[in-house]
Design a protein that fits this description.
Layout lengths: L8 E13 L4 E2 L4 E2 L3 E13 L15
Antiparallel strand pairs: 1-4, 2-3
Length: 64
């Protein structure tokens, strides 16, 4: 967190790799059997701004 608690940015890179295949025996959009194994890749950049919400601290009253 920053000192003023308002400028809390982060930037990241994500990469996901999956080895997939069809779950159905018949592929209806191409009207043929498809048993191929595929490698699906997903990648991207994300920007994040985090705005923390703090509750006010209770005032302490001490009686002697």
């Amino acid at each position: 967190l920053s000192n003023n608690k308002l400028i809390n940015f982060s930037v990241g890179f994500e990469f996901i790799q999956a080895f997939t295949k069809n779950r159905r025996d018949w592929n209806f959009d191409t009207m043929e059997k498809n048993d191929d194994l595929r490698t699906d890749l997903l990648y991207g950049i994300h920007f994040k701004w985090s705005y923390p919400i703090y509750e006010k601290a209770p005032q302490a009253h001490y009686y002697h």
